[in-house]
């Protein structure tokens, strides 16, 4: 028995990271799976009549040890991985997939669940209990409990293969990202780059024992270079490297993996009686069907496309006038957009960054959470961390009661995947009359402090931090009985509402005054800069919307059809992008082979939900604006009906309790400046 299989003898029951060794994981998983199986057997072998308590509730509380080990391990595999952890992940994933199938395909267990489900009309259940019962029943029926034995075996094999393919896909992307380096030895190649970006590139080269400036595919290195570097050839080289991850016909190629995943998902859906993978997934979403999703995407496309084309033509004319560029390419996009934005708004990220020192932005997010929801954040150093860069906080309410433990991990490193995400190390639940509080984490990739400067964020990074912090609040403020309905365990197209709505506070003067102060002088951000931020918020909104819609449409093109006839990933992708295309195609590039959201993460048939949630967030924030962005009544309603409720009730019901109406798409179009 490893340290992971015992109850943690730590303050707040936090994970004892420093004591966990890589070799502990595999035996810990095996032990925990056996323990969980015993818990399931107790439910199955209970001679008493199946009841909500002895079957449904018992099932939801089972496997707690396994869930805890899984969350620790897979979070490390994303934020602090190495070859050994990746190898363990390949061994563990099929074991977990098999165990999951052991539960959902357990006939005796399903019989007990079905007895309770069939008698639900006679039971006096709370709304949360009704939701849990429905979820548990569907957990079986949607995952093969009604299949014949041979089909169950087929399902097991598909799930096992999918779990390994998804991991392999992610490993290839991380390896591709880490492999590429562009070492520049002539300083003139850095022309246009801000001093901070040059210094970071110099420091990165030094850390690897090289002379010059090192540019990589990690966002804090890639984005500034694509946005500011005057050297068009180098932008092209970097853009092509970024856009061709997993598309080199070598041992890190993902084309076959993409085709296999799409086909296996389709085969799985068909096996379960669904037309496509998207039909299977969307049954448990606010959007309900692929037809509704496609109608939603196309409606926004109709509104956004004319604006996007107009913006693109203006950008092309601007590039031609400035640098005699005849044909705008993808590697010109960020560069000329930034130049045009500076010209139109006299607003440059480099002017804004001094007002967004990372520590101040963190405190700003905390202050907003305090004013809205009465939360207090205290940094503590008594909690174990998995890396020295991680910050740890104790979160309490206005009564001083513990709300959550909060981890924050902000800087890139080689064992950490790109992007930003929120996750949890321990869920909230009420068990044996004790309200177990959650342990929540956010992970980002911001520019590290240099010798001469602290970590200064671009405005885009500020909104990213607020976005992930919004997810974190959803996890922290959870107040449900059952772990599987707690926090962010909600329909996928609802989960982005708390994160996206919080981004709105980054644009408001009343909020910015609280934290946007110059890191050297302490001066509050000048209001003319705030006005420019607001004025520029809808800059190229048509093009941005088109880009997001193109990703959603690509996702649906893989998952909303029968993919068996697709032989070329690139050809299929080009067709899917047809209606949303502005820039010429780049032959060497392919997005699908690095589209981790849908082929590694949980967004398959769900990428549209970013836009769906934007409709929700625009509508919700209109309510805040109407009453005041720190209005206590509105904030209390948001906390009571959205943040604390998790997945206990249908999300549209919860939203209407908060807002008093269904969300209006016009709110998003108004905010985006797309309503003429």
UniProtKB/TrEMBL annotation:
Its EC number is 3.4.24.-. Residues 225-673 form the Peptidase M3A/M3B catalytic domain. Coiled coil: none annotated. GO terms for molecular function: hydrolase activity. Its cofactor is Zn(2+). Keywords: Hydrolase, Metal-binding, Metalloprotease, Protease, Zinc. Belongs to the peptidase M3 family. This is M3 family metallopeptidase.
